[in-house]
Amino acid sequence: MLIVCESAGVKEKANTAIKLQNEDIKYLLEDGELCRGLDEFTMTFPELTREYEKKDTVFLDDFARGSFDVPVRDLVTFTASTLPVWNGKLDILLDDLSPLVQKDSTVVVMGGTEKAAKNLAEDLENEDIPALYFPLEPAEFPRGRVSVLPGALSGGFGYPHEKFYAFTYGRNAVASKKRKSRSGFKKGQSLHSLDELKKGDYVVHSLHGIGVFDGINKLEVGKITKDYIKIKYAKGDVLYVPVTQLDLVSKYIGPHEDDGRTVKLNKIGGKDWEKTRNKVRAAVKDMADQLIALYSKRQNSPGYAFSPDIDMQSDFERRFEYDETSDQLRAIDEIKGDMEKP
């Protein structure tokens, strides 16, 4: 079965993607980086419609259309609503679940990890909300009870006429503070589109260093006209970079005039940028040597062996409102193991 959401939007995006891809393929063929016969990467929209016809396709559109790109067998109208992503606070979830359970509705809650889902089912029972934990999706969800499953969805949803409601836990619902980087070295901000640049912005070319973005120019080279990024350097030097090599250019995020510091432009062919790169390599190597010496010293120093987890710690972890990733859980176990060593 193939499910298509907002078929008109799919058609528009598919046609736009093909146009952009054809432009890229044209440049690659002109540059000799691609040959005929190896230039088909994406299904065209007519090819996509043929896939619609081959498969059992369901179109989910907000508004009924007068015609579709393929023959439609039936039109079915139903009402659906979006439900907010649950942020992990039990009292908020109880306010949403209580009236639904009383109305004999089918309620499903995706509780995140397996541990968190089991704990949630137990907590709901303690709050007089009938709940069942299912490790896997059952053949049929019971009515009048909350079915708790591990996992998560991109958002919650409900079908009021069918009395079916699905809630999901999500990290995006939890406000978090951004951590400030402590590193003294800042990597340039990668560019994904030319729209991110405006004339006069400082940019960094991976080979030639810091320059000033001076717009987009069309140049004819070998009877082929292409768009080039113009970058001005010190001593009046100018570099033209094909837009197809945008990955070599990043936005400069170091100290600016706004910080009261002058940005020094590099010179094409000069040694300053190479010296800067060598300094960074040397600094990274020194940092690695210092870390090796530090961990070696720590490894050989006698330490204090902490006791294994007590009930209070276990209960705290069981009710921890955030959903740890597998890497975080592994790191926690490793840290505890190190702390319990003599």
TrEMBL record:
Database matches in SMART domains:
CarD_TRCF
This chain belongs to the protein called Transcription-repair-coupling factor
Alphabetized Pfam families for the sequence? CarD_TRCF_RID
All residue ranges annotated as the CarD-like/TRCF RNAP-interacting domain in the record: 196-296
Parts of the chain that traverse the membrane = none
